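re the bet — no i am not wrong, look at it urself. input seq straight from the record:
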Amino acid sequence: MTTADITHTRGAEMFARYAYAPNRLGYCGPEDSSALLDGSRDQIERAARQFTGAWPYLKVLSRMTGIPDPLDHRLVESYWLGGGIGARLDSRAFTAELLAVIGPQAGHYWSHLTPDLADEAAPNHCFHVFGVYPWTRLLGKGMDDHPLSVLDNCRITWGTVLSIDSMTAMVRCQRLRWDDMMLSMSPPMTCQVEVPADGSMSDVSPGDLVAVHWGRLCDRLTPEQIAALKDSTDRQLRVTNRRLGAHTP
């Protein structure tokens, strides 16, 4: 197996781990989520191409970095966790490239997708959640619980496993908060999350650092990955709060 094959396989597998939970819930991607659960790398790639959120980012990352495979592990990791190779890209050039892909698909509900997004943009999932999706723009309108829940579940959460069995894990992590003016992270708390039934997280033990997406354990993380994810989240909250503050009556 060549180096390119290895990075493609690792990237496809990582994409599937993070994308499965929202796809299963019907939020994005193909109707059938089975390819993400147990498909071959080619089947995963076909499924990935149907994600109208993640796939455009990977395509733009591929073009701007010169890495020809959108599912190269370096690109997939940078998209889901932040940091890495994508962090080196110019935000305005990235925004222009991204809007050229997703702009034609946007309707009136997405009228905020303009070049002004460059002030918040980063080529990662956290920016997509807080900047591209409309949910932060629904905060402060009197019904905050639902948009806050979507934002908190859709972002990638990091944490430490306290206990785990075949079905659930107790994870020490932070949750997203909204105080009617700004978003912030809570102090660490204990949360119960789902453990994949396919055995993909069977080697996780108490004390391990993990990622959670839509209430489902999806990856083991290194301290370096935790740092990248935390930095990308902190940055996105900072620029999002700046926008929200500018629009506070």
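see?? The mean pLDDT is 93. told u. also The first strand starts at residue 157 and ends at 164. so pay up
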